[in-house]
Design a protein that fits this description.
By secondary structure, the chain is of the alpha+beta class. It has one domain. The protein is built from two helices and five strands; from the N terminus they run βββββαα. The strands form two sheets. Strands 1-4-5 form a three-stranded antiparallel sheet. A two-stranded antiparallel sheet has the order 2-3. A hairpin with a 2-residue loop joins strand 2 and strand 3.
């Protein structure tokens, strides 16, 4: 299906919290890159809406997700 618009977003309890956003390696810190627990409400071109995981949308519609 073709994406028309991203209408809303939400996260659930499995999303990484602000306190856990960094991974420590010895004296270095790196940002944890994950999309776990994030969802977007999508309006499809046929007029229907659905909640889709960010991991699916970032691959199929990277420009729309970035905006």
């Amino acid at each position: 299906m073709l994406l028309d618009e991203i209408m809303n977003h939400c996260k659930d309890n499995s999303a990484i919290g602000i306190d856990d956003k960094y991974i420590k390696h010895d004296s270095n810190q790196t940002l944890r890159k994950t999309t776990q627990g994030w969802y977007f409400q999508v309006l499809w071109r046929d007029g229907t809406t659905s909640w889709e995981p960010l991991k699916n949308l970032r691959v199929s519609n990277p420009v729309e997700v970035a905006e």
